[in-house]
Amino acid sequence: MTLENNLLANVNFTMLWFKIQMSLNVNSNTKYSKMISAHYDAKINNHFLNLIFFS
Predict the structure, then answer these.
(1) Residues in Cβ contact with 31 at an 8 Å cutoff, skipping those fewer than 6 apart
(2) Could you give the CA distance from residue 21 to residue 11 in angstroms, rounded to a whole number?
(3) Long-range CB contacts (< 8 A, 24+ apart) of 48-54?
(4) pTM higher than 0.70 for the full model?
């Protein structure tokens, strides 16, 4: 993967993540949404680590 593609994928992933966060904030009290939020936090952290080490 070229750096440009990597950065583009990163931006798309980040935008998706923020959309998810926004929609979760609407009903963030529920246990289920907290679980999803934690899952995506872990996912995005992993994604950034991959970008740093494997780009």
Answers:
(1) none
(2) 15
(3) 48/10, 51/6, 51/10
(4) no
